[in-house]
Design goal:
It is built from 18 helices and 25 strands. It is of the alpha/beta class. Helix 2 runs parallel beside helix 3, helix 2 packs across helix 5 and helix 10 runs parallel beside helix 11. The longest helix is centred in the C-terminal third of the chain and has 15 residues. The termini are far apart. Bound molecules: 1,6-di-O-phosphono-alpha-D-glucopyranose. The site of 1,6-di-O-phosphono-alpha-D-glucopyranose (G16) has 17 residues, from loops.
């Protein structure tokens, strides 16, 4: 039943910040998924005795791609697949299943926060036995393989029924279809004080969780409504749909606009949250109040002792370089380890495995801990609920008291989308060459203290990664420039701005950052080079 099929390479199968992401229309081309998967299997080598976890966020093409992966895994000699029922599994749940079963890795079919559907995006995230996504050295090898792949192996059998939980066999490979929610719920129960959160809801506390018609709906319904007792209807858009019902499942102020409008209305619940397509990102809101992801990381870290699983102490904390410096001040106050890594959750994995850090987070709405090796949307929401239950304070009170204690990092990200790739690359190259000449120069009242590329030397595997350009000012303000690695067409230039104040805690972030935005445009020449004077998306 095993067939070997001849194929020719696609030139564009290089993974980005988190796996392979392309337009659905690209991925549905003949042999596109097959070439990519065969390249991965070729790089792994001997697959006998190996177990992989497979699932996805339910987006368009999930069902077709998953069948191809199952049949190819069997034909390539994989011993066992653990698959989420109906092909569903969130990215954090997948990481947990890999670790719990000591599996050799896993594949989550998702383009994360990118829109889905026939005209949207599709993607494949590949994790290894750490439960985290593979390091760049491995993805480089896979890319090289995609450039020479000439045949793939597939089991020529009818589709596997993934609707029923249980065991089955295919071409000598064992398949275990599991409920993707159960293990995840148990893990959360082991971390947080479910009794305290239940009491909070029993006392009348209200929340709205927007699952954005993506994979976290079933997880959120189970945990927030069924177990913790949030009022029925607290979880909205909870049915995963192939096109996310037309929503763009990116939990931020721009794309989660139904939730944002609701939370900024007079009908707002006490707490609001959203997750992304595959459940690893989160957004936290209070009534008429938004918590930036950078602040959220700092606040969670500062309050670790309120959470049962962390109350004995945490190793340390890490953030991506582009994320605001808010958590650095918390790390200093608590005397714990502090690390700055390139953008990409995979850079946290070595730090967690070597017990250097417990928490980590990014400005791109990702927060997590060493309970798994991915960021975790529902974990972050439960962390906030647990703090609220333990401290008896609102989201706004907790955040304002945090600023009172540590000062406030005004922080925003400006995205210039759909830029011609050659123009974006040239802009970054020219900027990198120019930055060393800026040191000591003053722009308006801002004096440059240092400027250059961000280079990360991993303390564990000693690899070195260059990612983004940073301009630091004498007053602690910063500009970070990067090209996104998660888009599916053209280039997106990201400009991250930060300004710190110990005294001015109630200003409008956009106003506080107006001057730095102007300086950022002047230094980079983005308007002249791209024709864009305003960002397409501001978060
Ligand atoms: C991925 C990565 C994150 C990264 C984000 C944005 O998240 O796992 O580490 O911060 O992309 O990356 P970029 O700025 O390169 O677009 P996700 O949720 O998309 O898997």
């Amino acid at each position: 039943m095993i067939k070997t099929v001849a194929t020719t390479p696609y030139t564009d199968q290089k993974m980005g910040t988190a796996g392979l992401r392309r337009k659905s229309k690209v991925v549905v081309q003949p042999n596109y998924v097959e070439n990519f998967m065969q390249s991965i299997f070729n790089v792994i080598g001997n697959l006998k005795g190996k177990t992989f976890v497979v699932g996805g966020d339910g987006r368009y093409y999930n069902d077709i791609a998953i069948q191809k992966i199952i049949k190819m895994a069997a034909a390539n000699g994989v011993s066992r697949l653990i698959i989420g029922q109906n092909g569903y599994m969130s990215t954090p749940a997948g990481s947990n299943i890999i670790l719990k079963n000591k599996a050799d890795g896993g594949f989550i079919l998702s383009a994360s926060h990118n829109p889905g559907g026939e005209n949207g995006d599709f993607g494949i995230k590949y994790s290894n036995e750490t439960g985290g996504q593979i390091p760049s050295a491995v993805s480089d090898k896979i890319y090289a393989q995609t450039q020479i792949v000439s045949e793939y192996k597939i089991c020529d059998v009818p589709d596997v029924d993934l609707s029923k939980i249980g065991h089955q066999e295919l071409c000598g490979m064992q398949i275990d279809v599991i409920d993707p929610v159960t293990d995840y719920v148990e893990m959360m129960r082991g971390i947080f004080d479910f009794d305290a959160i239940s009491k909070l809801f029993a006392a009348g506390f209200t929340m709205r969780f927007d699952a954005m018609n993506a994979v976290t709906g079933p997880y959120a319904k189970k945990i927030f409504e069924e177990i913790l007792g949030a009022p029925a209807g607290s979880v909205v858009n909870y049915r995963p749909l192939p096109d996310f019902g037309g929503l763009h499942p990116d939990p931020n102020m721009v794309y989660a606009k139904d939730l944002v409008n609701f939370m900024f209305s007079d009908q707002a619940t006490d707490f609001g949250a959203a997750n992304d397509g595959d459940g690893d990102r989160n957004m936290i809101l209070g009534p008429k109040f938004f918590v930036t992801p950078s602040d959220s990381l700092a606040i969670l870290t500062d309050n670790f002792s309120l959470i049962p699983a962390y109350k004995k102490g945490i190793y340390g904390v890490a953030k991506s370089a582009a994320t605001s410096t808010a958590v650095e001040r918390v790390a200093k106050e608590h005397g714990i380890g502090y690390y700055e890594v390139p953008t990409g959750w995979k850079y946290f994995v070595n730090l967690m495995d070597s017990k250097r850090i417990t928490f980590c987070g990014e400005e791109s709405f990702g927060t997590g801990s060493s309970h798994i090796r991915e960021k975790d949307g529902i974990w972050a929401v439960l962390f906030w609920l647990n703090i609220i239950a333990a401290a008896g304070k609102s989201v706004e009170q907790i955040t304002r008291e945090h600023w009172q204690k540590y000062g406030r990092s005004y922080y925003m990200r400006f995205d210039f989308e759909g830029v011609d790739t050659a123009v974006a690359d040239k802009m970054m190259a020219d900027l990198e060459a120019k930055l060393p000449t800026l040191s000591g120069k003053t722009f308006d009242n801002y004096k440059v203290s240092a400027a250059g590329a961000f280079i990360y030397n991993d303390p564990v595997d000693h690899s070195s990664t260059k990612n983004g350009l940073i301009v630091r000012f004498a007053d602690g303000s910063r500009i970070v420039y990067r090209l996104s690695g998660t888009g599916s067409s053209g280039a997106t230039i990201r400009v991250y701005l930060e300004r710190y104040s110990q005294t001015d805690l109630r200003s409008d972030p956009l106003k506080m950052l107006t001057e730095i935005f102007r300086i950022a445009m002047q230094i980079s020449e983005i308007p002249e080079r791209t024709g864009k004077h305003q960002a397409d998306v501001i978060t």
